[in-house]
Amino acid sequence: MNLSKLNITRIVVVVFFFAIAVSIASATIGREIYGATKVSLLSFGIINFSGYLFFLIMPVELAFIYYLHSHLSLFLLNIIAIVTALGAQLIDYCIGRWLSASFIDKLVGRHRYEKAEEEIRAYGNIAIFLFNLLPLSSPIILLAAGMLKHPIRQAIFYSLLGLVAKYLFISIIFF
């Protein structure tokens, strides 16, 4: 099996970010599940923020459902979910806007962000809204929006609409 230098670099980057994701989950929700500490808005905020960064893959919707069944305020939980998600997506957008395509290609892979670019070019703000409403890769779509220099106000506004709808829907169904 002949691995190119690029493939080895990708594997190392993926393993590194996977280790970060596991560490974050273990230090927050893992401790809470095993009873060492009580659930908190801070731990949820850390997990949710991390999960919306394009280079970390975390099941933020499942974490939200887990935290819904705690003693935390439903209103505050929704606010924290939306604010941390928007903050991370703003970072994703800025990374896409400021970093070179070749660097992002090495980090994420050309196919993933090209697919997101196609969605934005074809559907624009509707794609941003739907990717945030559904459990799809909304961080990648914001990264692509930044790369395409999509208007930031529109990207954030439609992200906000999708996130509000998603978290309200999850709250209604699972609370």
Automatic annotation (TrEMBL):
Pfam families: VTT_dom (PF09335). It comes from the Bacteria. Its main location: membrane. GO terms for cellular component: plasma membrane. The keyword Transport does not apply. InterPro entries: DedA_domain, VTT_dom. It is found in: Cell membrane. It is a multi-pass membrane protein. Residues 74-172 form the VTT domain. The keyword DNA repair does not apply. This is SNARE associated Golgi protein.
